[in-house]
Amino acid sequence: MTPRTRRRRRALGVLLVCALLVAGGFWAASRFIDGSEILVRERCTAVVGPDSFDLAPDQAANAALIAAVSLDRGLPARAASIGIATAVQESKLRNIDYGDEAGPDSRGLFQQRPTQGWGSEEQVMDPVYAANRFYQELERLVPDFEQVDITVAAQAVQRSAYPDAYADHEPEGRAYASALTGHSPAALNCVLKAPDAPGDAEALVAALEDQLSAVEPSVSRDGRTVTIPATGTRGWALVQWAVAHADRFGVTAASFGGQGWVRADHGWAPATGTDGAVTITLAG
Fold first, then answer.
1. Residue 102: CB partners within 8 Å, gap ≥ 6?
2. Strand 188-191 relative to strand 43-48: parallel, antiparallel, unpaired?
3. Taking the model in full, what pTM does it have?
4. What is the mean pLDDT of the chain?
5. ∠ CA 220-226-227 to the nearest 5 degrees?
6. Phi first, then psi: what are they for 183, rounded to 5°?
7. How far is CA 147 from CA 70, 144, 150, 184, 225, in A?
8. For the range 223-227, what are the long-range contacts, defined as Cβ-Cβ under 8 Å and sequence gap of 24 or more?
9. CA atoms of 243 and 214, how far apart (whole Å)
10. pLDDT tens across 140-195, in order?
């Protein structure tokens, strides 16, 4: 073998080793990314027909609260549409503790003003109280709210300086209300990273009972499973409430009506043994 041939073979060997190191680096990097979920963009999406709308997990949880309170009051889904669209405009569905120039004392999901008779600052910062007060005024001021535009109903309650702004959020309000009142099964999905702490069944049950008084949840002995008897649209409302609150309470799965949401799979899939009750599984 000539010196030139030996040099060529050594160069090819070096190139092969380098290629293997690069490939190994890419493999290790991809495994790290998959394991760390670094590319997971956490979000909740409501899909109704051809339209879809994204919210951050905390916003979706507040939308679910607003829908739950409307159900607790025995109101139709239209009320939840109005409530959610209003809160998107007023606070971006966040329980904020500040107002603006037009209402410096405005607070909470609906930017309600203590000086205008909405309640104390502590009360309007309680999302369940705020939602109930909103619906109380909606029922009083717009008894035919099912027949009027969402923006007209919202403005009658809020008396905003920007009365037409609520119209921008009508489609979003309808999509989330349809899912969260149970009229659109498996229409709400949350893409979340794995929980970083055990789930809190007691806190989940307390929040559920605060928002929906007529529920009878039971918790398994190990504290990892919550079961709620339910049928029809109520079951779909409850299971999608659980999905919307999955980030807050460490929910890893929720099932009802032949469908199950699995956090690790980032979506819904057929599930068995899900008739007559909503089953919620929490991280251990």
1. 161
2. antiparallel
3. 0.87
4. 90
5. 100
6. -80, -15
7. 17, 6, 9, 21, 41
8. 223/282, 224/199, 224/281, 224/282, 224/283, 224/284, 225/201, 225/279, 225/280, 225/281, 225/282, 226/201, 226/279, 226/280, 226/282, 227/277, 227/278, 227/279, 227/280
9. 19
10. 999 999 999 999 999 999 998 888 899 999 999 999 999 999 999 999 999 999 99
What number of other Cβ atoms are within 10 A of residue 87's Cβ? 29
Structure confidence by residue, pLDDT tens digits, 59-70: 999 999 999 999
**CA-CA distances (angstroms) from residue 33 to 20, 27, 28, 263, 267?**
20, 10, 9, 18, 20
pLDDT band at 29 (very low <50, low <70, confident <90, very high): very low
How many Å from the N-terminal Cα to the C-terminal Cα in the chain?
Answer: 65
Number of residues assigned to the chain: 284
Are residues 44 and 54 in contact, defined by beta-carbon separation less than 8 angstroms?
Answer: yes
Contact between residue 6 and residue 12 where contact means Cβ atoms under 8 Å apart: no
Chain segment 110-128, per-residue pLDDT in tens: 999 999 999 999 999 999 9
Give the pLDDT score at 10: 63
